[in-house]
User: Fold these one by one.
Assistant:
Number 1:
Amino acid sequence: MAIENVFSWSKSRAEEFHECQRKYFYNRYASWGGWDKSAPKEARMAYVLKNLKNRWAWKGETVHHVIEDVLKALRNGQTVPLETALSRLTETMRRNYRSSKSKKNWDDPKNNLGLFEHEYEKPVSDTVWKEIHDSSAECLKNFYGSDLYEELKADDKKSWLVIEDLEEFNFNDAKIYVKLDFARRKNDKIEIFDWKTGKNDSDAAAVQIGAYVMYAMKKWNVPVENIRAFLFNLSAPKPLANEQPVSEALIRSAAEIMSGSIRDMRELLENLEKNIPKPRENFAFTKNEKLCNYCNFYKICEKYNGVIK
Ligand code: SF4
């Protein structure tokens, strides 16, 4: 049975749409079906390109994955020593780097990472690549050295609710996707944690936290005052859980932003029910051309006479 391209909303989708509608079109529509090697060329190219990661996203994703494994092991009663976690991180990054260098992602983009910098032959020195690895390892070490990790080891694991699960809920007749890094019950409250490997940006995090809180209220049937949310900056040598304001006002503002974003996206649909987009000419190129230098789809973008090889 063919997989349906169902309309959904997530913070990353909204950011993409806001940055460049054409980029959003390539990512959400042109790439559809491109997981199949025999898909039409544009779909295949757009699909491979959408899966590229730049080095900072790669760092964040790798650290998140290792912490996810560490917490899942802990939930099963096993403690992963720091040295083991660090070896996993290094092995994963080496494997990813090699597969990206040799362009294996063009054969199998789901199982082989492609780095944006390799695809677009950006000049990145070995020192910079090493720094990316070393700062990722630091994030992991900082996590292990944190008071929170000590607390989690001692926790009753039955109180743990989520470790990096992709969840969804309905809002304005749209599927909203959220991926909580970690959530638990503590002292009759739900606590939600968001690991950060880059800068802490509380404003940008507010819509995300708002969506998490909306999800938590529905999922665990709790009032807003029983939910706490924290940003956890792994770049800090001794990371602290930075509590974010959670209130009715936050939910109202997140809901307003989400509604507006969903409405704008739907305006570019020809068929709302089937999520069929209007012709691509309706999806505007960004006016901020600086963004094009970092865009995965640069080589197929019509603005630059992109070619489908
Ligand atoms: S290259 Fe620029 S205009 Fe083209 S999709 Fe990317 S961001 Fe948009």
Note: The pocket of iron/sulfur cluster is lined by residues 20, 22-23, 285-286, 291-292, 295, 297-298, 301, 303 (CB under 6 Å).
Number 2:
Amino acid sequence: MEQSKRKTRRIRIGGVEVGGDAPIVVQSMCATRTMDVDKTVAQAHQLARAGAGIVRIALDNEKEVPALKEIRAQTPGITLSVDLQENYRIAGKVAPHVDKIRYNPGHLHHIEKARTIPQKVKGLVEIARDNDIAIRIGVNCGSVAPTFLEKYPGDQLSAIVESAAYHCELMEEFGFERFVVSLKDSDPAKVMDANRRFTARRPDVPLHLGVTEAGLPPDGIIKTRIAFEKLLAQSIGDTIRVSLTLPNDRKHEEVTVGHAIIEDVKAGRFISVPDFGTGMNIISCPSCSRVENEKFVELAQYVKEVTGYAKQYKITIAVMGCRVNGPGETDDADLGLWCGPTTVNLKKKNRKIGNFKYDEVLPRLRVEVDRLIAERTGAN
Ligand code: SF4
């Protein structure tokens, strides 16, 4: 889709151009274990064949760097990005093997407390410059930097927009302009608000759009469309990622759905879902290298099945694949499940109910759903 109205700064990420009048780039992320080089290489090709302009990989520690190096060697022509999450300290080891690194401003404060945020960002900028790569400033509503939450009490939207704007200013202060920004949440309305606000604040900065943990198709596609159709129609968004909970052999559908949304917006076709979001809302992560047990996707599908009887109730259930993001990302849900290697942690809001085996958690979830319904309806 060619952009016409809003012109962001055009930057190069590996073999692709993002921003300005460049076509919108659809990207996706490998859900295979990064240490499993064969599977990750195969999935990177699977995503690229489907039309992914950028393929992202998660890296959790330095031990995975040799695997990344081998993945790079076996994926010539594919633009690779790495998601550093809390591991920004390994950026220097990762950078020689990728075209872009993503860091989360909400994950910089609690490690290396003796160094300031500007010092840490300066370090990342130097690594990016030395390795001729780009950066994504990836702000997430579930992990906003505490300084900004304190500065804007009760106003999460301002906190995330200002946190992103601050990091843009830091990059520019260090003479670096080859960056994109993302402001993500699992709620499409928040994604729209945050991206519109950020665009008004920094119209020049290229934006990566995403609705996190959109979940299983078809609901995950609908949630994503709600935000993307409106934003893309306003020429907001230079690169997109559709996050769907899918088994590995169907992971490329994230990419085909992304292209379909772009084509539909371009043709003026909008899928209207007037009553979407009035009942049960199941959010689930798209899984990645960090997923703790391969049963995760199946678990998300079963959660949908066993709670189907209560679909008219406005209950949010979050299903997350790992301990990195699982505990935090489930805090706002009425009921949350996050996967460990052999057990699933079940929560009610931010209170832990317990750890259950994979085959025991669903009956307990059903009990908790019944309790919630009883609390809300006053039934015994
Ligand atoms: S919750 Fe964990 S497994 Fe799921 S996408 Fe996020 S980091 Fe990956």
Note: The radius of gyration is 20 Å.
